[in-house]
Design goal:
By secondary structure, the chain is an alpha+beta fold. 28% of the residues lie in helices and 35% in strands. The chain has four helices and six strands. The chain has helices at residues 2-6, 9-13, 57-71, 86-94, and strands at residues 17-23, 26-37, 40-48, 76-81, 98-100, 115-120. The chain has a six-stranded mixed beta sheet with strand order 1-2-3-4-6-5, with helices on one face. A hairpin with a 2-residue loop joins β2 (26-37) and β3. It is globular. The N and C termini lie far apart (30 Å). The relative contact order is 0.16.
């Protein structure tokens, strides 16, 4: 996790995207689409600062990420999260993500990940 957070430019250099939501020059939330291959991405590093929670920022970030993936012809978006993040899981489910049994890579790179989901794009 820290390597990715310390080098976010690598996400973009590898063909991914970073989205942010801000108000008055203050970043309130972020998420990334990390390119896995030509047709799939991983939704990663999604977070909204505590004072901005409940204002639909996470939903808007997710909407932007899904729209961008569709726009470039992606067929799937994967994500890995933790079962304690119930609000996030509900948000993902409302947007069409379905549970899978394991990480898209077979072995999660995230120590706390125990929930794996996939969104199939038309």
């Amino acid at each position: 996790d820290m390597d990715l957070l310390d080098h976010p430019q690598q996400i973009i250099q590898d063909g991914g995207f970073i989205f942010s939501a801000s108000l008055d020059d203050e970043v309130l939330g972020v998420c990334a689409l990390i390119k896995l291959d030509d047709t799939s991405f991983e939704l990663s590093k999604m977070g909204v600062c505590e004072k901005a929670r409940g204002k639909q920022i996470g939903r808007k970030l997710l909407d932007m990420a899904i729209a961008r993936a569709r726009e470039i012809g992606a067929k799937a978006i994967y994500l890995e999260t933790n079962n304690q993040l119930k609000s996030a899981i509900q948000l993902y489910q409302k947007n069409g993500f379905e549970f899978t049994h394991e990480s898209h890579t077979g072995a999660s790179a995230y120590q706390k990940a125990n929930v794996f989901m996939r969104l199939t794009l038309p």
